[in-house]
Amino acid sequence: MIIELQDRRLIAAIQCVDAVVGEPIPQSLQIQGPGMRFVRNRLGLYVLTTAPGFEAYTRQFDPAALVPPPDREILLQVTDPSGQYLPRLLRLVIPRSLEAEADTSIFRPVRLPLFPAPTFTRPQPGWAIFRAGVSNLAGEPLPWALIQVTRQSNPILNALAQADSRGQALIAVPNIPQTLVSADSEDGVPDLLPDAVTATATVIFDPAVTTIPDPDDLLARQSDLFTGTLPLSVAAGRSRSISLAFDLSPPP
């Protein structure tokens, strides 16, 4: 048996997390970009090992001789083959910094949130779930729109979701208050009733986006996009199918 040792300098690492709770996504995902190669390691990180123009960089380990390639932005597409999470784009600047304390350090994986798809089947107890059709007042779907759920008096109640290419969205709202109603139940465990609270659903929509988007880009350009708001009654542990028809305001 011949054992071949292959050492490579890593270019970047990505950690894909659930956008609702921030926990790592356990199933295998696909991350693709032209000429890029990602390897999923035992920690669940997606490590970029190959990129065009980085051949010499990945094979050089002498700090004195290392000349990093110029910074460049790459565009990646992340897909969940199981369909539990929506696909998305990611813009990433490489190479990452070699300084351990830098915000862009190679030693700090890029946290990438993915939004649950309308077909998501693993909501956690206590979440408020809305399976929503997102449209304008004319009933036209709003594909890839972002939906923010906020309550000004309770900053913890804050959720962000995204519609798919059909304008269908799963909106999951965690951290909803519940009321203790009885400590005399048969099993000795106090009963909880969900408090229905009124929140605001805000839609962010770019009609120019017709393919898989970068949600971070949509958020950054929010002031230049179509928006609209609706009141939304939210209660823990409830799952509803609803239609959200927004009166869209054009950008100023």
Give a brief outline of the structure.
With 252 residues, the chain is mostly beta strands. Helices cover 4% and strands 39% of the residues.
Strand order of the largest sheet: 3-4-1-7
CATH homologous superfamily grouping of the largest domain: Carboxypeptidase-like, regulatory domain
Q: Name the CATH class of the largest domain.
A: Mainly Beta
Question: Which class best fits the helix and strand makeup?
Answer: mainly beta
Going by CATH, the architecture of the largest domain would be Sandwich
Enumerate how many helices there are, as a single number: 2
The helicity comes to: under 10%
Radius of gyration: 22 Å
Number of beta-strand segments: 16
Largest sheet: 4 strands, mixed
Domain count: 2
What does this structure look like?
By secondary structure, the protein is mainly beta. The protein folds into 2 domains: 12-114; 128-246, Carboxypeptidase-like, regulatory domain (Immunoglobulin-like, Sandwich), CATH 2.60.40.1120. The chain has helices at 55-58, 215-220, and strands at 12-18, 30-32, 37-40, 46-50, 72-79, 88-94, 110-114, 128-136, 146-150, 158-162, 168-173, 178-182, 191-194, 197-205, 226-234, 239-246. The strands form 5 sheets. Strands 3-4-1-7 form a 4-stranded mixed β-sheet, with no helix packed on it. It has a 4-stranded antiparallel β-sheet with strand order 10-9-14-15. A 3-stranded antiparallel β-sheet has the order 2-5-6, with no helix packed on it. A hairpin with an 8-residue loop joins strand 12 and strand 13 (191-194). The radius of gyration is 22 Å and the shape is elongated. The relative contact order is 0.16. Mean pLDDT is 86; it is low at 1-6.
